[in-house]
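Kindly go through one protein, given below as sequence and tokens. The question is how this chain folds according to its tokens.

***
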Amino acid sequence: MNTFYGFGNYAGDYWLVGMEEAGGRTFAEIKKRLCKWQESGGHELEDLPTHAHKMGWGAKYFGENPKWQPTWGKLIRLVLAAERQMGIETAVIKQFQQRRLGRHSSNHCLIELFPLPAKSAGHWIYAHHSTLPFLHSRKQYQTYLAPIRIKHIQQKIKQHQPKAVIFYGWSYRRWWQEIAERPFTKHDNPKCLTAVTNNTLFIVIDHPATTGVTNLYFEQIGSHLNNQFSKEQMKS
């Protein structure tokens, strides 16, 4: 499963990069995910609604009346704000989730630094179900896979040159720095770190599930991205 990176479209403008997928509460669930991914061709990026329907929860989040998913909702709000929309209503978020989120035809991708799902940072069931040495502990797993996956993500960024790579969550800041390959600049309003290349803006932000983080914060981050894009266009 090391070659699985997430969902959506590498050619999209916005890359939303997290630590790992949520879930993985039982080995049976993880085995099902792996089997469905292999049956689909084992692509680096899957189509999220297609994957969800194969897993049995597609109708819940991508059907006629999709349930709003809070983590996705804040990331969607950021993308819409980067597209110059503000004061975004929940109905608009749900429509984006239903029609655009994580699709192969979308303007974004949802990437995970690590491939295996986990219900929390302290949850690690893989040691009980695998003889692979690097799965004996989360630390060994991260030490083994981080350099491989960082290098691959770097290569994909150089190949596709997205407008923005958005890292959410501060715990992995050192790895976000490695991917960006340049120092970050701190900003206080809104709280974030940024770095810029000729073609891509890198930004580190709060995780959507962080206690106390607001919808407004993600709209402000989206607006900040849009402003930065405008400045870079003026320079060129």
In short: The chain is about 45% helix and 15% strand. The domain at 6-235 is CATH 3.40.470.10 (Uracil-DNA Glycosylase, subunit E). Strands lie at 6-8, 14-18, 45-46, 108-112, 164-168, 185-188, 191-196, 201-205.
